């Protein structure tokens, strides 16, 4: 292994999640319009995504305090922070696709809401899209929490930590 540790990872911007959500919406619209009946959507995705969002938001709060070395917390191991960052990035991409896909399904059936089964599918799709949006927000919060503050106060001011961009 010849890693010099000098690699950088850029924060998730708005372009990739937006493109994934738009692509997911197109696929959701296509699926809902091409299936002869209603697409079967499990309601269990809503609490699952909400639990994932709550867990990531809770982890983000703890991670931010540990990275900033708040009193009463253990310092965060760099490998643990890297793993949480990978989880946050993967969750953000997954949530973007899910948000778009289920919003697309909900949009496709808005004109057929007079039947109870259509209303139920619409509400499940909308609830799943909202849950995926909350997971996206929690994932971006976790990613933000993994950032090391510029003046991290660890006493190692040897002149190496100048900003990369000038």
Overview features:
mainly alpha; single chain; elongated; 166 residues
Write the layout of secondary structure elements.
Blueprint: H1 15-34, H2 45-67, H3 78-108, H4 116-145
Helix pairs in contact: 1-3, 2-4, 3-4
Q: What series of H and E elements makes up the topology?
A: HHHH
Helix % is 55-70%
Pairing-aware structural class of the strands and helices?
A: mainly alpha
Mean pLDDT, to the nearest integer, reads 85
Shape, principal axes of CA atoms: elongated
Q: Strand share of the residues?
A: under 5%
Main pleated-sheet profile: none
Count of beta strands = 0
Number of helices: 4
Q: What would you report as the Rg, rounded to the nearest angstrom?
A: 20 Å
| Uncertain spans | 155-166
Roughly how many Å apart are the termini?
Answer: 31 Å
In terms of quaternary structure, the protein is single chain
